[in-house]
């Protein structure tokens, strides 16, 4: 399978998926990286591995960015099967969602549907979790629809919130699990181990 990874930041999830793909635990290859920030860590890492980097969307800061229809055409030309959002902070246009129906997933650093949606990104998520008094948090991987963080949930992992956690402590604990969970989910995706419940909820079948 061929994968596109969308990044806006450091790209540690992208890096762990790339490593798993190179060592063969994911039966898929990252064909292209899409970013809205040409200088971000994820884009730099892609260039260092000779993975093509595409800019999207076109903005004042990134005048070479593609339009949504050019992005769809480019992803098709790379024969991309699945799109993985890994710290990509822009909304995905409807045109792309329709072109890649049930094939775009995102990772979010809280147990959705709690602490998700516009405004809940980066450290803000972990600060809000700690402020609420919640005793558990953890990453969610979900299908992407036209809103932030509302698509059907595909996988979650529980991480404890400790009494004296600062947002950075919780973020680091969640991020470590994100790397494991994302690799497991992408491996399942590439092996066609996703089945669909009648109500549209995706389920992962174990390997045996
Ligand atoms: C992760 O916490 C992810 O859940 C969120 O953005 C962060 C990206 O981290 N969507 P990285 O760029 O993969 O290091």
UniProtKB/TrEMBL annotation:
Gene name of the encoded protein:
LOC111488685
Stretch of the intact protein here: 82 to 289 of 295
GO terms in the biological process aspect are: 'de novo' IMP biosynthetic process
Q: What is its EC number?
A: 2.1.2.2
Give a yes or no for keyword Chloroplast in this entry: yes
Q: What's the protein called, per UniProt? A: Phosphoribosylglycinamide formyltransferase, chloroplastic
Q: Which reaction does it catalyse?
A: N(1)-(5-phospho-beta-D-ribosyl)glycinamide + (6R)-10-formyltetrahydrofolate = N(2)-formyl-N(1)-(5-phospho-beta-D-ribosyl)glycinamide + (6S)-5,6,7,8-tetrahydrofolate + H(+)
- Pathway participation: Purine metabolism; IMP biosynthesis via de novo pathway; N(2)-formyl-N(1)-(5-phospho-D-ribosyl)glycinamide from N(1)-(5-phospho-D-ribosyl)glycinamide (10-formyl THF route): step 1/1
Indicate the family of this protein: Belongs to the GART family.
User: Which residues does the UniProt record annotate as the domain Formyl transferase N-terminal?
Assistant: 1-186
- Give one GO molecular function term: phosphoribosylglycinamide formyltransferase activity
Where's it found, cell-wise?
Plastid, Chloroplast
Q: Which GO CC terms are listed, alphabetically?
A: chloroplast
Question: Any idea which UniProt keywords this protein has?
Answer: Chloroplast, Plastid, Purine biosynthesis, Transferase, Transit peptide
């Amino acid at each position: 399978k061929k994968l596109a990874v969308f990044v806006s930041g450091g790209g540690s999830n992208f890096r762990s998926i790339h490593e798993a793909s190179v060592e063969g635990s994911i039966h898929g290859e990252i064909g292209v990286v899409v970013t809205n920030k040409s200088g971000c860590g994820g884009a730099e890492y892609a260039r260092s591995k000779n993975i093509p980097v595409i800019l999207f969307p076109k903005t004042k800061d990134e005048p070479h960015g593609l339009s949504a229809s050019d992005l769809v055409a480019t992803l098709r030309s790379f024969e991309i099967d699945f799109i993985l959002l890994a710290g990509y902070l822009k909304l995905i246009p409807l045109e792309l969602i329709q072109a890649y129906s049930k094939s775009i997933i995102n990772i979010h650093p809280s147990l959705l549907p709690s602490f998700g949606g516009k405004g809940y990104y980066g450290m803000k998520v972990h600060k809000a979790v700690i402020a609420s008094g919640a005793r558990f948090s953890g990453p969610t991987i979900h299908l992407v629809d036209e809103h932030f963080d509302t698509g059907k949930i595909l996988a979650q992992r529980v991480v404890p919130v400790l009494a004296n956690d600062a947002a950075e402590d919780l973020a680091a604990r969640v991020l470590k699990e994100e790397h494991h969970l994302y690799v497991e989910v992408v491996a399942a995706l590439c092996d066609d181990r996703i089945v669909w419940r009648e109500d549209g909820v995706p389920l992962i079948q174990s390997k045996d």
